[in-house]
Every structure is written in structure tokens, then in C-alpha cells.
Amino acid sequence: MRFISFKPIYQQRVWGGRGLEAKLGRSLPDDQPYGESWEIVDRPEAQSVLHGAELSGLTLRAALEKHATELMGPDWNSQTPFPILVKWLDCQERLSLQVHPPADIAPSLGGEPKTENWYVADSEPSAGLIVGLKKGATREEFERRLADGSLEECVHRMKVSPGESMFVRSGRIHAIDGGNLILEIQQNSDTTYRVYDWGRVGLDGQPRQLHVEESLQCINFEDFEPETIKPAPGEQTLVESEIFNLTKRELRAGERLEFSANEQPRLLSVVQGSVRDLEDGAKVPTGANVLLPYESAFTFVAAKDSVVLITDGFAHG
């Protein structure tokens, strides 16, 4: 079984724009602002459709039900949803200040835990990330500033450059500035609690819903001034966690990238350049996110200087 590609699902967002078109060469459905491309998703409300492989035309859910062992390994329960959700985020304006519920709190709120990683593929010179609290900030100050509209004074903002990475565990307060193109690799969850939205209205002209009480139950008020992982040459570990692992590989033109069969399924994301499968010559271009099935071995070669992300450690059965 060869690598599996997916048809993107584009999502309009009030903070989005046309960056997916301009920077990734995508063809967007219409002239509306698109902020997200759901690249790989297995949820009741959204299903990736496979293409360009033996399973072309199947939804991800159907593919897992019919080919769980080949795709995920012999211990995988075919009824278990695919555990990772991959998105491109085109942030033309700042996103809301938000939090995702930790696993021990999510059930009581009717939500799902959501831990994620951001890889900054492109950013404008003024772009930044807001993650965690400023040192010394307290819950009392947070609630007071939330009430008087000065919340930006107690959250931690940092400037970012392309190639930086930020791990955002459930419970970590966060927002993404405008001017960022980000690949988000996350738990399969769509639970987000907005605590503050900078006075913005939605695409319908109405203020967007906030979830203040839920947010206050979820925020880690001991999380002060985390920093991004800066890019390093060669191979670099970005995430080691119980949810997934993430590795960055820089490849020179002509360099090979090899994966053995019958170890684990993996996701391959090309964030710069392109690679091709040596067996059949199929190209994985900039912006693509593909599944490398458990049962298959792969050898890719970089068509030019390239950067790829490898997600693994997620097939827990």
C-alpha cells in the first residue's frame, strides 16, 4: 500500500484570508476568507476523503473500518477514530484568546481534551504568538483585566519567525497573531473555549460566543512565559509526548528519507520544498500531509532542499 493523500476541507474564518492560495498554491472554493484547511480528520462532523491511492474515494472512517491492520497495525481497533487532526491555519488577523480543556476536566464540561503543536511555516516580521501568562500574573488579575478589557497586559506574547515550533498542551492559554501561516498537529478534538476575542464580531456581524466560565476552569494559572523551539539544522525533535511525537528533518536536494514497514503508522508533512516516493515517483509537494501506512516501507528523495515533519507515536490502539 502506497502513501495516502487526502482532499482538504476548507473552513471560512473571520480571521482568515487567501494565504492558503497564495502560499500553498491551493485552489479555494470561492472568494471568502478561509482560515483553516482540515488536512486529515476523522470526526462525525468532518471526514477526510482519500485520493491517489488504492483506497481512493473512501472516507478515512471507512478506510479504517475496512483496512485497520494495514493502515494502523494489528492491535488497532477499527472503530477507534483516527487520533490526530492536522490543519493548516492562515491567520490574517489575531485569533481569539482561548484554551482547550485538560483530560481530567473535559468530561465534566462535555468537551474533549486537545493538545496541539504549531509549526510556523511562514510569518510576517511583526507576527507573534500569545502563549501562557506573564510572570507574576495571578488568576485574580486575569479575571479583573478580563472584566475591564485589558487582558492583553497579563498574557505572554513573543515574536516568531519561520521554522519555530510551539507545543500547546491542554490548559495552556493561547492565541495566534495575524501574519502567521501555521501547520497545527493536534489531538482529534474540536473543543475550544474562547475567553476573550479582542472586541471582534464574526462573519455574521455579531459578537462571537465566549466561554468564560469554562475557560476559567481549564486555564493553567501556573503556566508562565513558555518559549518556542528554535529551528536547528538536520534532525530535530519538536515534541515527545504520550499523545504524539513530532520530528523535523531538513533534507538537501537528493537526500533520502527511509521508513521501515511493520513498525508504526506515520504522518509525513512537507512544510518546505518537495519529496518523491522512489518506488512509484509520486510527488509530495509543499503543504501536503500524507499517511504512511503501518504495513508499508517507504523511501523518499528530496527533489530540492526541503523540510518535512514526521508525526508518530499516536497508534496506541
Key structural traits:
single chain, 317 residues, mainly beta, Jelly Rolls, six-stranded antiparallel beta sheet, five-stranded antiparallel beta sheet, Man6P_isomerase_Firm_short
How would you describe this structure to a colleague?
- The structure is a single chain.
- This protein has 317 residues and is mainly beta.
- The protein has two domains: 5-218, Jelly Rolls (Sandwich); 235-312, Sandwich (Jelly Rolls).
- Helices cover 13% and strands 38% of the residues.
- The chain contains five helices and 24 strands.
- It has helices spanning 19-24, 60-72, 106-109, 139-148, 212-218; strands at 5-7, 9-17, 34-40, 42-43, 46-47, 49-51, 84-91, 97-99, 116-123, 128-133, 155-159, 165-168, 174-176, 180-187, 193-196, 235-240, 245-251, 256-259, 266-272, 275-277, 283-284, 289-292, 298-302, 306-312.
- Strand 20 and strand 21 form a beta hairpin.
- The longest helix has 13 residues, at 60-72.
- Residues 6-108 form the Phosphomannose isomerase type I catalytic domain.
- GO terms for molecular function: mannose-6-phosphate isomerase activity; zinc ion binding.
- It comes from Cerasicoccus arenae.
- The active site is at 194.
